[in-house]
Amino acid sequence: MTIYDVVKTVRLTEKGTAQSARWNQYTVVADRRASKVQIRHAVEQLFGVKVLKVNTQRITGKARRQMTAAAGNDPDWKKAIVTLKEGDKIQLT
Q1: How confident is the model over 60-83, as pLDDT tens digits?
Q2: How far apart are the C-alpha atoms of 77 and 82, rounded to whole Å?
Q3: pTM (2 decimals)?
Q4: How far apart are CA 91 and CA 81, in angstroms?
Q5: Are 56 and 36 in contact (CB under 8 A)?
């Protein structure tokens, strides 16, 4: 897996913005098969920062209905909360 396969995107939410300002943490959507070590290396190489800690969660997809009787599901995904060294930042815009 390449670093572009491991880290899919950085999530921009109100909670994530508060985390980045207060604790220097960023929320990353990662591949479901990626380990914490792979996520750490991918973030360090992509953004040029030093990662101190990686916490992961497996998020199950919600059941959805879109104007039909047939139900579907959102895909499952992995959330990684990455803590950076003080002074490092990820430019999101």
Answers
A1: 999 888 788 788 889 999 999 999
A2: 16
A3: 0.88
A4: 16
A5: yes
